[in-house]
Amino acid sequence: MQYCLTLELKNDPELIATYEQYHSPKQVWPEVISAIRDSGITDMAIHRVGTTLIMILQTDDSFSFTEKAKQDAMNPKVQQWERLMEQFQNVGSNNQQSKWQLVERIFSLGEQVG
């Protein structure tokens, strides 16, 4: 399955640059990478336009947003990473599920006739 999610960053060039550094190759904590992979996410990419982040997830059949949230809530290292990332994100102190917003797919080339 493929999912697309969005999140808004704070409109601060220095914070955005630091956020991108945290997400550069080999900078995301290994425990966070393991939690992502263990949840059934087979590939993940995050893109940015202005302050908007766009996350594309590829998942296997075992993936569930609900189960991922439960596992993340029980993982102290993931919770530490989430708290660290909140300083860059334009979100309140809501739970993790409310940070990234699931985007509705309205078009697929593969579903078109012709």
From TrEMBL:
GO terms for molecular function: L-rhamnose mutarotase activity. Pfam families: rhaM (PF05336). It comes from the Bacteria. SUPFAM superfamilies: Dimeric alpha+beta barrel (SSF54909). It is an enzyme of class 5 (isomerase). Keywords: Isomerase. Its EC number is 5.1.3.32. This is L-fucose mutarotase. It comes from Pseudoalteromonas gelatinilytica.
